[in-house]
Amino acid sequence: MAFPTSGRVIIHTTVGEIDIGLWSKETPKACRNFLALAMEGHYDGVIFHW
Questions:
Q1: Which residues form the PPIase cyclophilin-type domain (predicted)?
Q2: How many whole angstroms separate alpha carbon 22 and alpha carbon 5?
Q3: Cα(39)–Cα(33) distance, rounded to whole angstroms?
Q4: What is the C-alpha to C-alpha distance for residues 12 and 30, in angstroms, rounded to an integer?
Q5: Fewest Cβ atoms nearer than 10 Å: which of 24, 32, 41, 48?
Q6: Per-residue DSSP letters for 1-50?
């Protein structure tokens, strides 16, 4: 399955949402890898530090 490499990602945290834009033209491989891992659930339940 080919994942899109453009668009936005919303990260849901316990203190609100984070809206992230994907830089598909500059980093297409990183965008595909990030989206594939996210769709497979690799980031579910991960502690987010800021």
A1: 9-49
A2: 7
A3: 10
A4: 21
A5: 41
A6: -PPP--SEEEEEETTEEEEEE--TTT-HHHHHHHHHHHHTTTTTT-----
Contacts of 13 (CB under 8 A, 6+ apart): 48
Distance CA 33, CA 30 (A): 5
- Contact of 22 with 8, CB cutoff 8 Å: yes
Question: Looking up tokens 């990260």, which residue turns up?
Answer: 11
pLDDT digits (tens, 9 = 90+) for 7-46: 899 999 888 999 999 998 889 899 999 999 999 999 999 9
**Domain ranges (residues) in the chain:** 8-39
